[in-house]
Amino acid sequence: MTALVVPAPTSARHLSKAVMWITAGVSALVAFGIFAVLSAAGISEGFNLVAAVFVSAVLFVLLSYVLSRIVEGRRKASDRLATGLVTTAFIVALLPLVSLVSTAFINGLPRLDPTFFNSSMRNVVGEGGGGLHAIIGTLEITLAATIISVPIGIMTAIYLVEYGTGRLAKAITFFVDVMTGIPSIVAGLFAFALFAIVLGPGIRFGIGGSVALSILMIPVVVRSTEEMLKLVPNELREASYALGVPKWLTIVKIVIPTAIGGIITGVMLSISRIIGETAPLLIIVGMSTSMNYNLFSDRMATLPVFVYTQYASQGSDAQAYIDRAWTGALVLIFIVMALNLIARLVSKLLAPKGLR
């Protein structure tokens, strides 16, 4: 019999981690040096950190491919190139977020003081003042929109997954898809027209903004909840039915608790989708410089509209208005981050023991 001979690798050489770190350092040094020279020569306005990081990542991918091709061969070099391209794509996707958060933090930090959180803009025309009225308005309107949207969205998704058949289910799915692409200003115009017919023209109040935002929020809740419910194994439903448990109780006790983590995540994504909307709130809620805790009476301030008005309607001391606008944007980012952290904690606590 002929023995099976396994061919030996063509090359046992490989690039060490130290070489890769040196390559990364050289790439960063070259990229940062280029942009530093451009900044010093006045060709670019300031040092562009985001572009420098991107160029250094691209240089690292190219240099690592060339070195790997020379030392390790074509197959390993191709593997490193693919890995580098995926990593570069991740960096490209992450850079705008990092740039946005860092810019908002740097520019909003000067007015991130106690005065901003304990005072409104009532009778303030220059320095000072705060965004307490806008923070309260944002939380109240968003909470009301969530109370309106979440039950409707979840029950609609349950119907589509557990009960929906025929033309009605197809029609609901079609209209949910259409509502997903509705511009936010259309939702604001719809809410304004609805309440103007009922309460008269010129109506401005917080609950109208909640209704407008709920129109944008419901399709996101429906879609995310629907996908989470579809992931629940049918074996769990069949086992419950085999024990004589009715369908509605199976949904409440088996299906929803199994998918609760994904449902909460979808709800938080929908809140993040609406909490920064400006156009519908400008139309139906308006803007106020004073505190207003009543959703059903008069105009209210919200953080997105507060940021817009501070930037668009600057007074004699323009820098004070710009600083307040950046701080309002930074506080809005903090609120979204806090809501996401709370959602992760709640979903982990409510998830079944085997899924924690």
| Share of residues in helices | over 70%
Order of helices and strands: HHHHHHHHHHHHH
Query: What is the count of DSSP helices, taking H or I runs of 4+ residues?
Result: 13
Number of strands: 0
Tell me what you see in this structure:
With 356 residues, the chain is mostly helical. It is built from 13 helices and no strands. The protein starts with 16 loop residues before the first helix and ends in a 6-residue tail after the last helix.
Describe the structure concisely for a colleague.
By secondary structure, the protein is an all-alpha fold. Helix content is 73%, strand content 0%.
Secondary structure blueprint with pairings:
Elements: H1 17-40, H2 49-71, H3 74-108, H4 114-118, H5 132-163, H6 166-180, H7 184-199, H8 206-230, H9 234-242, H10 247-274, H11 279-284, H12 303-312, H13 318-350
Helix pairs in contact: 1-2, 2-3, 3-13, 5-8, 5-10, 5-12, 6-8, 7-8, 8-10, 9-10, 10-13, 12-13
Core attributes:
356 residues; mainly alpha; 73% helix; flat
